[in-house]
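tool=predict chain=A
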Amino acid sequence: MENLVSKLLEANRHLRHDFLNHLQVIWGYVQLDKKEQAIDYIQEVTRYIQGLREINKILDDQLAGELSVYILKIGLNPGFQLSVPEKWNVKIAHRNRYSSFFQGLFSFLMEDINEEKVKLKITILTEEILLEGETLKEGDILDWSNFIALLEKEKFNIIKEEDGNYFRLLVKDQ
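tool=predict ok
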């Protein structure tokens, strides 16, 4: 738990830093009399902040905290989306499995997401997680083997589809 608190404090620092950067960008547009760009940027930041509300639907505080850390590290990135059903919860006995899932997923994809090499949409369903996305450079293929091995170790059922740059991975709880 202590490790989670320190990670959340670090995520909070990221959030404050990003927020101040966004204000500086908006202020720059205003000073340059670029009203339309300022409005567009405000709308983009607003969509990002509204997207953070998805985390509030996760009832397990530990998982919500861990996911917050990863999402705040990604920051404002139109290539990343998260969708969570109302009041999503996991059995306490499965918490560590989901924690490993998210840690493995973001260890695998964080750099590519931040460098905008990959678009990713995570849809959390009741007992399934759907990952959909694409690599943005033609011919780039993701090596899923380590992540798949982690999922198998954690005893998740996996259905994986790939078609060129597009991928879809359905992870089911047992």
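Helices lie at 2-31, 35-52, 61-74, 95-114, 145-153. The two ends are 26 Å apart (CA to CA).
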